[in-house]
Write a structure and sequence with these properties.
heterotrimer, A mainly alpha, B alpha/beta, C alpha/beta, A: mainly alpha, ABC transporter involved in vitamin B12 uptake, BtuC, two-stranded antiparallel sheet, C: alpha/beta, Rossmann fold
């Protein structure tokens, strides 16, 4: 018994750290309806600032704590609310998640820009000296870091519980959670209460970061992934607690930490342990997401006044004068010709690589057009599907000598299989839960699936050779760019066919109303499995092209952060249309290229662009580029119509394809 | 036995509330039945049970003599059960014509992906003809290419009705089709329902608060109150029934 | 508008108000007023726009045009929580209480701002004295109360807070007749202390029995207003001949 407890004990401080994360997720979600994926990033930021204040500024620990956890962190959360989330209370859960994803990408990337990127060893501890053994319990040494983490966490969580149960502000928070509208009828300023909730949960994030410091050996500013395992565990505990119970989240998190610790001790070290331990939290997370009936009720709003708010406005569609169609078609053809000619002649070599990358990424982004744009499902694992395609093509070439083009197709099919599997696994869930499932899959692939020599090729990665078709060798960068262009055209054509065909209409119907779609005889499960498979397949093909471009790829090339970045880029340029994906792909590659010319001061600008892009999404779900285009097209149409009117052409009405402006006018 | 739909002692509970309490009713083939009752009587809940959104706790549902218990919602639609919704469930971004086309293909199960990929998904003449017929019937021809998001509530209700008809139903469940409409629009809906029943011999189960509309459309009326059937029969007899008036109006006559 | 309305100074006034949800227009140019201390019954069939009107009055739904005044002050664009602080209470249709909070927490939430912290304890005691059934359930989750008890709970808070105006939306919905009786007794007690009431009902007889003025809403417009005793005939006319054939 004592040895058992001895094994379990070291898991408790880890569990406590997970708990702070889980409790923070639960509080933000319940008080604001935002699933704050940026929570881990906020923790990271606070840890960073705390460390900076103690070490570089020489502040006493308590003062640094006050600044980092009690001032900066809540201020950050409060500003998120003021600048972003307050303005989108009726936006869809998807839009809110995208906004949070933007922050998740931007925050950790901004820190090294502000404070430099030297790794810091031996981070300071909040309370007790982490290296000093305080006492032995069941003959296991307990050090100061572990003790302070455990005591502070349990203390803080209990304080939060008491605050919510007993204090007037806590009472108002709980009321706002249940029904914003009903709370307003009682004279409660729901917006202020939400801002308070953001501040509170952000302070918890800060605390989690600062407490985690002594448990990690070093803090690398440019590597926010240290906080990934925290994210997984926090997500899992929050899910197990049904996204509701705070004490439940604490319990689940500690249990998780203890179980992991036990597994580590009990399993014989070797292949089994290496496979089981990293996979363990994912198994729990996926099983909970897929199977928990309590989580499924999450999306069914308990708010009695739910009908009061208008549904989110559907994205506007382009209005295009029919007379513009021919010039635009010719303009497109001209553009392609110009691209081919330039690519083969004057464009410098390193530009060719960037352009090819843009083409390969465009294929991956088309997969987002299909799944997020067409079916309305936010997926956070498209880079993982791309990785499956790339590794598949590379491994097949290495082991079976398969041509890379065949390998890309087979790799795409494997990815499609994974996509279909994911959709079937998720047959009873949708929306936010399915989004979290895709995130879990991406993290699972990063930490587990892609870590083997048979998959991601381990540290050395996987070689993906350039294809050879008969006499044509695509070893040269320029010829490969042409091949990439052809592949992109083919894939874009497929997506267009789907969008214009029955499946595209079914998906648009499901996006509008799943209930309505089922009432007509559309098999939702089949439609969803189809779109997941096809989307994953496209991403796989794009990934293989990407790999072939750079000759070799490894697991970090398809890290989950890329999945997040991809989604943000595509939805903020325009996920509804094929050209949106291509614009996004080219922009992604070319902005990176352009920034190599920019002064080094601007190094951190990319993540800021991401964050800004993500923020526009809630306001313009059709994409900011698409929105601008719509505005300009409408302007041109009006000019043409005015010209007609002046000429006095009878009955010459602009051939509008249709507009939903009328619908928007009423929303106010 | 020409009974198309049979609801046999169906009960369902939400928490402590008995939303439906051993409800039994039937609809014969080609018949129009009005289902009326005050707010919260369980009418929409009954529709949800019939169309497969909810599973009753007890009782049986039979459609064309076949038990519906384990049939998923989309299969019930393909069997010939179509419905409209009290709270609109339209597809905002699809045009009116696409609504009908989607319904026409979905109920036949004709939406295979390979057809799209081989560019064989173009609208065929017979599909176009069926869609056109419904557009004309509901007077939606002018709006065929308009996205539904740009339409008002009245037109949306007609689109839902048309969408349901495009499924070639044998039984149409219409849930408050006139709610939120003005007089002219409501008359248009009533006329459409009447002609559907007469010309296509589609059975109709109509939930409606506007008793005037019920009297025009329905051959027979079933009254639901607090989850129970409290009266059934021809319109005049049922509306004259003091128990019904009490439940419906709160009238103590 | 009736003559006595202008004399007493209306506590609530709607002038030519239109409103809706998205593309759905629920109210078309509605005007009505509730005199201070009076009871106005707002009746009409389902979907006539009664609940929307109640929500516009308390700021939950914004009017797209027209003017809303509370106690002579324009509140058309005012946030719901500010209108609530002007002494307007809205008992919404269905569950008007917080089901996850217990009975006492619900009361505290409703009363703390309205009576001030100093007299909160006395206010709670008064609420329990008026509705003794609540005092035995003080620490029970409000969501587990019966429908009638939930309605009592929302009324208890309003009663003790001495609101200027109570907008009561479909109080009788889903309740047994005996329970409806006691709910209406509660309403009359609220009225007895000088609070004006706007009673929205589908079961017209109850509302008309206590009202001094009646407004009939048909398809988002006021089709008739006047003496409550004459409103029933009007309602029946609309119920059975709800829509006239066009032309």
């Amino acid at each position: 018994m004592n040895t058992f407890l001895g094994y379990a004990l070291p898991g408790i401080p880890y569990g406590c750290d997970f708990a702070l994360m889980a409790v923070g997720l639960v509080i933000t979600f319940r008080t604001t309806g935002v699933f704050n994926l940026a929570f881990g990033a906020q923790a990271f930021a606070a840890a960073f600032i705390f460390d900076l204040l103690v070490r570089s500024q020489g502040l006493p620990v308590w003062a640094a704590f006050v600044v980092a956890v009690l001032v900066v962190s809540p201020a950050l959360g409060w500003s998120f609310d003021r600048l972003l989330f307050r303005h989108i209370p009726t936006a869809s859960t998807t839009a809110k998640v995208v906004s949070a994803v933007g922050l998740l990408i931007a925050i950790p990337q901004t820190l090294p820009v502000l404070f430099g990127s030297t790794p810091r060893l031996d981070p300071p501890s909040l309370w007790l000296d982490p290296s000093r053994i305080v006492f032995h319990l069941f003959s296991t040494p307990v050090n100061g870091g572990e003790l302070s983490t455990t005591v502070i966490t349990v203390g803080v969580v209990l304080a939060v519980v008491v605050f919510l149960r007993r204090s007037p502000v806590g009472l108002e928070m709980r009321a706002v959670v249940e029904s914003r509208r009903l709370a307003q009828l009682q004279g409660i300023d729901a917006a202020r209460v939400s801002a308070g909730a953001w501040a509170l949960s952000s302070a918890m994030a800060g605390l989690a970061g600062v407490l985690l410091l002594p448990l990690t050996a070093e803090l690398v500013p440019s590597d926010p992934l240290q906080f990934t395992s925290l994210l997984v565990a926090g997500l899992t505990a929050a899910a197990v607690a049904g996204m509701r119970s705070i004490t439940g989240a604490l319990g689940a998190a500690v249990a998780l930490g203890v179980l992991e610790s036990l597994l580590r001790a009990v399993l014989p070290s070797g292949v089994l342990a290496q496979a089981v331990i990293p996979a363990f939290p994912f198994v729990v997370l996926v099983a909970t997401l897929v199977g928990s009936p309590r989580l499924r009720q999450l999306e069914r709003r308990a708010d009695p006044l739910v009908g009061v708010d208008p549904p989110p406005a559907p994205p506007a569609t382009s209005v295009r004068d029919r007379r513009l169609e021919a010039p635009m078609r010719w303009g497109f053809r001209l553009l392609v010709v110009a691209f081919v000619v330039s690519g083969l002649t004057w464009v410098p070599g390193y530009w060719v690589t960037s352009l090819s990358e843009g083409l390969a990424l465009s294929v991956v982004f088309l997969s987002i057009t299909l799944i997020t744009g067409q079916s309305g499902q936010l997926s956070l694992c498209q880079a993982t599907f791309a990785g499956i395609g790339a590794f598949g093509a590379g491994q097949l070439a290495a082991h079976l000598g398969l041509s890379v083009l065949v390998g890309a197709v087979v790799g795409g099919l494997i990815a499609a299989g994974a996509g279909a599997f994911l959709a079937l696994l998720a047959m009873r869930i949708s929306g936010l839960l399915l989004t979290l499932l895709t995130l879990a899959f991406a993290l699972f692939a990063d930490q587990f699936l892609f870590q083997y020599t048979w998959s991601g090729g381990g540290l050395s990665g996987v070689v993906v050779p350039r294809p050879v078709i008969g006499p044509i060798d695509f070893g040269s960068d320029r010829s490969f760019m042409m091949l990439a262009l052809v592949v992109l055209m083919l894939c874009a054509g497929l997506v267009l066919l789907v969008q214009r065909g029955t499946t595209g209409r079914y998906l648009a119907a499901m996006r509008g109303s799943e209930t309505g779609a089922a009432s007509l005889g559309i098999n939702l499960l089949r439609a969803r499995a189809t779109v997941f498979a096809m989307s994953a397949g496209l991403a796989g093909v794009g990934g293989a092209m990407f790999g072939s471009l750079y000759h070799s790829v490894s697991a970090p090339s398809f890290d989950y952060v890329y999945s997040l970045a991809f989604v943000v880029v595509v939805v903020s340029t325009g996920a509804r249309r094929v050209e949106g994906a291509i614009q996004a792909g080219m922009a992604y590659a070319l902005i990176a290229l352009a920034l190599t010319y920019a002064p080094s001061r601007l190094d951190g600008i990319e993540p800021v662009l991401f964050a800004l892009g993500a923020m526009t999404y809630a306001a313009h779900p059709e994409g900011i580029v698409e929105y601008q285009k719509r505005k300009w097209l409408a302007r041109v149409s009006r000019l043409l119509a005015a010209a007609d009117a002046r000429r006095g052409a009878p009955g010459a009405r602009p051939g509008l394809v249709g507009t939903s402006e009328a619908a928007h006018a009423g929303h106010g | 036995m020409a009974e198309l739909l049979e609801v046999a002692e169906v009960s369902i509970r939400f928490g402590g509330v008995r939303a439906l309490d051993t409800v039994s009713l039937f609809v014969a083939a080609g018949e129009a039945v009005g289902l009326v009752g005050p707010n919260g009587a369980g009418k929409t809940t009954l529709f949800d049970c019939i169309s497969g959104r909810l599973r009753p706790d007890a009782g049986a549902l039979l459609f064309d003599g076949r038990r519906l218990d384990s049939v998923p919602a989309y299969r019930r639609a393909r069997m010939g059960l179509a419905r409209t919704f009290q709270r609109l469930e339209v597809f905002p971004e699809l045009t009116v014509r696409d609504h009908l086309l989607v319904a026409d293909r979905a109920h036949r199960g004709a939406g295979a992906l390979w057809r799209d990929l081989l560019n064989m998904a173009a609208v065929r003449p017979e599909e176009a003809a069926r869609v056109e017929e419904i557009l004309v019937l509901l007077g939606l021809g002018e709006l065929a290419e308009t996205p539904v998001a740009a339409l008002g509530l009245g037109r949306c209700r007609l689109v839902e009705l048309g969408r349901a008809l495009a499924c070639q139903p044998r039984l149409l469940l219409a849930d408050e089709p006139s709610s939120g409409l003005d007089g002219d629009e409501a008359s248009a809906v009533a006329a459409a329902l009447r002609s559907v029943q007469h010309r296509r011999h589609t059975a109709v189960l109509l939930v409606e608060h506007d008793l005037g509309m019920v009297s025009r459309v329905a051959d027979r009326v079933v009254v639901l109150d607090a989850g129970k059937v409290i009266a059934e029969g021809p319109f005049d007899a049922v509306v004259g029934d003091p128990g019904v008036r009490r439940a419906y109006l709160g009238v103590t006559a | 508008m009736t003559a006595d309305a202008s004399r007493a100074g209306p506590v609530l006034e709607l002038r030519d108000v239109s409103a809706g949800y998205g593309t759905y227009r629920a109210l078309f140019g509605v005007s009505l007023s509730v005199p201070a201390g009076a009871i106005v019954a707002l009746v009409g069939s389902n979907g006539a726009g009664k609940s929307t009107l109640a929500r516009v009055a308390t700021g939950l739904v914004a009017a797209t045009s027209g003017t809303v005044l509370v106690g002579g002050r324009e509140v058309t664009k005012t946030a719901a929580h500010h209108i609530a602080r002007l002494g307007v209470a809205h008992v919404p249709e269905g569950r008007g209480i917080f089901g996850d909070l217990d009975v006492e927490e619900n009361l505290v939430l409703a009363l703390r701002r309205r009576v001030g912290r100093a007299t909160l304890r006395q206010a709670l005691d008064r609420a329990y004295a008026t509705f003794p059934v609540l005092s035995t359930r003080r620490h029970q989750r409000a969501g587990t109360l019966s429908g009638g008890e939930q309605r009592m709970l929302s009324l208890a808070a309003v009663l003790v807070a001495r609101a200027r105006l109570v907008v009561a939306d479909e109080l009788s919905l889903g309740l047994a007749p005996a329970v409806v009786d006691s709910v209406y007794r509660g309403l009359e007690a609220i009225h007895a202390q000088g609070t004006a009431l706007l009673v929205v009902e589908q079961q017209v007889d109850r509302a008309l029995a206590i009202a001094q003025h009646a407004v009939v809403l048909v398809r988002g417009s006021v089709s008739w207003q006047g003496e409550p005793s004459e409103a029933r005939a009007e309602m029946e006319r609309h119920l059975t001949a709800g829509y006239a054939p066009p032309g």
